[in-house]
């Protein structure tokens, strides 16, 4: 009988946890659908060809994407030395994150997924710009565009973007709309 009570409590805890995840995901979807404009990547690519990226004219990649050794091009993930919090490459180069070459999108320019997202709310735009490095850590490419402001891109495909990117961004942003539903 005690085992049945424990099993029942575990099942109930799983249901409560799943409901909480669903409330957060639903609130996150409402945030994205209401407060972000979807812009085709092909439109950005035509307006700002890749060779003009970061030239001071129109579109700048603030954070996200791939970084590599400035001497030999090895991906930064392969040369990070966690104990020293520095990058050490087999070619002999050693340095900090700021000294790496910022390559940008790994799969396609401006992002692997064919849509970029522009916040329609100026407080979101300001927050995303001020926290670009943190936003990149949850998997976004963060662009600043003269014409639109911040653009978010996802350099991937074939998985749940809400679970992998948008929900972590919602939490990072400190939103709690799921508590008021």
Rg, Å, rounded: 20 Å
Strand order of the largest sheet: 1-8-10-9-2
Oligomeric state, counting identical vs distinct chains: single chain
Strand tally: 10
Strand content: 15-25%
**Average predicted confidence as pLDDT:** 84
The shape is: globular
User: How many structural domains?
Assistant: 2
Class derived from helix and strand content: alpha+beta
Helical content (DSSP H or I, runs of 4+): 25-40%
Number of helices: 5
What sequence of helices (H) and strands (E) makes up the elements? HEHEEEEEEEHHEEH
Give the termini distance in whole angstroms.
37 Å
Question: The biggest beta sheet, please?
Answer: 5 strands, antiparallel
**Low-pLDDT windows of residues:** none
Explain this structure to me?
With 181 residues, the chain is of the alpha+beta class. The chain folds into two domains: 29-65 and 105-181, no CATH class; 67-104, no CATH class. Helices cover 38% and strands 23% of the residues. It is built from five helices and ten strands, in the order H-E-H-E-E-E-E-E-E-E-H-H-E-E-H. The chain has helices spanning 2-35, 41-47, 122-130, 132-137, 161-172; strands at residues 36-40, 59-63, 66-68, 80-81, 86-88, 94-95, 101-104, 115-119, 140-145, 149-154. The strands form three sheets. A five-stranded antiparallel β-sheet has the order 1-8-10-9-2. Strands 4-5-6 form a three-stranded antiparallel β-sheet, with no helix packed on it. The chain has a two-stranded antiparallel sheet with strand order 3-7. Helix 1 (2-35) packs across helix 5. The longest helix has 34 residues, at 2-35. It is globular and about 65 Å long. The mean pLDDT is 84.
